[in-house]
Amino acid sequence: MRSVYLQTVARFLLPVFVILSLFLLLRGHNAPGGGFTGGLICSAGIALYAMAYGTALARRLLRVDLRVLLGIGLLIALASGIVGMLPDREFFTARWVSIRFDENNGVKLGTPIFFDIGVFLVVVGMCLSIILSHLEELEGRR
Amino acid sequence: MGDGILFIGSVASLFLLAVIAACVPAFGRARPFVAIVPAAWAVFFLLAPDQTFRLPWVPGLNLELAFRLDPLSRTFAVLVTGIGSLDLLYGYGYLRFGRRKFQALILVFMASMLGLVLADNALLLFVFWELTSVTSYLLIGFDQDSPAARNAARRAFVTTAAGGLALLAGLILLTGGTRLSELGDAAGVAQALPALLLIAIGCFTKSAQVPFHFWLPDAMAAPTPISAYLHSATMVQAGVFLLARLQPNLVNHPVWMPLLVTFGVATIVWSGFLGLFSRDLKRILAMSTIAALGTMTALIGLGAPGALLGFIVAHALYKGGLFMVAGSLDHGTHSRDALALGGLRRLMPWTAAAGFLAALSMAGLPPAVGFATKEALLAGGSVGVMAVLVLYAAVSVMPAYAVGVRPFWGPVASHPDAHECNLAMRIGLTTLGIAGLLAGLFAGSIQSRLSVADPAWTVVPHLGVPLALSALGVGLGGGVAWLWTRLASRERTGITAGEVLDRLLDVLQVASLRLTRRLQGGYLSVYVRNVFLAVLLFAGMGFLRSFALPSDLVLTPMNFLEGILGGAIIVGAIAATRSDSRLGAVACLGIVGTGIALLYVLYGAPDLAMTQVAVEVLTLLLFVFAFSHLPKVKRPPQRKRRAFDGLVALFVGVLMGGLALMASVTPPNPAVSQFFAAKSLPEGYGKNVVNVILVDFRAIDTLGEITVMAVAAVGVVALLRMKRKPEAPR
Fold this sequence. Notes:
The complex is a heterodimer. Chain A is mainly alpha-helical. Chain A has helices at residues 4-27, 35-53, 55-62, 66-85, 111-141; strands at residues 96-100, 106-110. Chain B has helices spanning 5-23, 36-47, 71-94, 99-118, 122-140, 147-175, 192-206, 215-218, 224-233, 237-250, 256-275, 281-302, 305-333, 349-363, 369-380, 383-405, 423-441, 443-449, 465-487, 497-519, 524-546, 560-578, 582-602, 606-627, 639-665, 670-684, 689-697, 699-724; strands at 51-58, 63-69. In chain B, helix 3 (71-94) runs antiparallel to helix 17. Chain B is elongated. The model of chain B has no long low-confidence stretch (mean pLDDT 82). Chain B is mainly α. Chain B has a two-stranded antiparallel sheet.
């Protein structure tokens, strides 16, 4: 569907989708959101872009092969669990580091966010693998 | 943790080295030096004292990393790493392409085999056992484009994996989680007999005993460096290793000896017979390896594991050497026909020398180590041991002659343009040959290193019964060799067990194809109908049996918003079934989905709602895009079909509604949700309880979920790709 309307819309919406998905990913721990939802929204944005501009451009946009993306996501998720194991605890013990800016403000960083990032990447990889493959099949029929 | 360095360090470093060898692109000159690492480990293992090591993981389930080093495991560890390093070098010289894949796979295999021989925990041993099966599948099918290689790999894997399952069952029955080193006399254990049989099946499949021997000759489709390592020195020995490891525990069982001796002797006889009709160098060697494994099995059954270690060492050295000789001959003359090669000693001097030394050891002649170990076994053994060894000698002279001597003998070179192999290959060849000689000359010190207390090993022949028996064996062997020269030109064909396996797998494939065609007609409605019917059958039965509403059920009145949303959903669903256009139906389904998402919001589950909406949007986009490519005309389904579908839909709807009702009415255990709600902020540092549960409290479950998602994605892509490029089955 090389329609100009779709292309224009997709071009503007893609960054919105991606930023929204990252926003949902990062806020997931304290408010509705999380890796799964963020991943779905990111895939939706890229899928829209692929429908407008073609799957070849969409894959080039991603820069990494989708299988590699799946693998990296799984590795990050696994690594976040192993990190918890290191000094003599169990697999997937969450480690937290607290950074204080001043008396009232501070930030806690922990391994669960990395796990969520891994989930995000796997969801994106999975959805896009399936969607882009189907789109390519449809394109090929033309 | 300090003394775990030997165990964990060796296995882990080899895995790591494999990853490095795989990822770094072919960097030419430096590749051969990869072989230094396993060689170094071989030396460490040779010098290290006996020790054990434990790293507990889940003590309640007896899961731990338990390793031990004793004479048996030390012998194998040194063999695995030492011959492995020589083979890495040899393979580097032999292969023109695929060096990176070769090194990576061989190193992974080496690490797995090493872990297998060092493991003290039965489950750990099993994990490594299966790893060796998987890597050997990849190695046998090294030449991916050759259907013969793929077929051989499949046969090998199916056989050894099936055996592996039996092994797992047997190990669990026998040990129940105790460490192997603490097992004691297990012959009296309650389920000793089934355990013994199952373990025997596992070991026999791996070590190619009759009737599971057929995969080994086919595995010769792999390149020679792989055959030299896997199918002579290491992998096939895994079964023998396990039998030797369990021998002290099971020796008192009445079935132990007859089982092992029967199968072992049958294996020797059958493989010797088959070898008479073989012409291909590697096939001859494969048959002789099967015979050697049969000998080892029978010897373990007869109770001679001490000097058996010497036999194993000698066999690994000369068999690996002979395989390398065969590879060198193949490399230099492009022929593997044992009857056609001759007179090549001037053109290939190093290979000839290595072949001669290996043949000497195999035939059990002084001063090679093969002679020393055989004499020791004969001197210390019973009548049964003597008989087995004479039998083995009778069938092993022929391969030694055919591969190690005959191609180089004679006045005229059969292939005048043959060339000697390159340096990398020569190092491997000659090292093994010389090792056989040196091991023979220094047999005494090796014996003490392996702490075997049997009669002293020596290569000096002295008169006595052992020498007479050796002479008898060699004499018989000579006769067999002569017989071979007569018979080998007629290559015997006929139904082999391997072909039976192939037919079986073919039948399975055809049957599953038929079933799939029946169940999946190609129309989406057929798939959905079949899925719903299955759901009705399985879930419905359970539902009918347990459906019960509590008697004090109170229905709260519906509020305005719920009413509107519920009504919209119902209207949307009905409109979807009645719509004439596809897009209209999809739009109505969109109404249903969005309505459900809004209900989630209403009931306080915003995460769910967002996910639902996102999925709705995605599927809507896909539908629209897909429909724009479909033909305009839609075939209306027949009346009867529609009525049946409606009935199925009705029942499934009632089932789902009933399940939802039951679930909402049954009071859940509040303890779990209270725990999560209470601990989410203080311990999980998050206010979104759902997310904290997903990524923190129950992270392992989520890890499993995303793994499944990744696998599903790969599967879908592969299926779609197969559709685009149709390839012939198999």
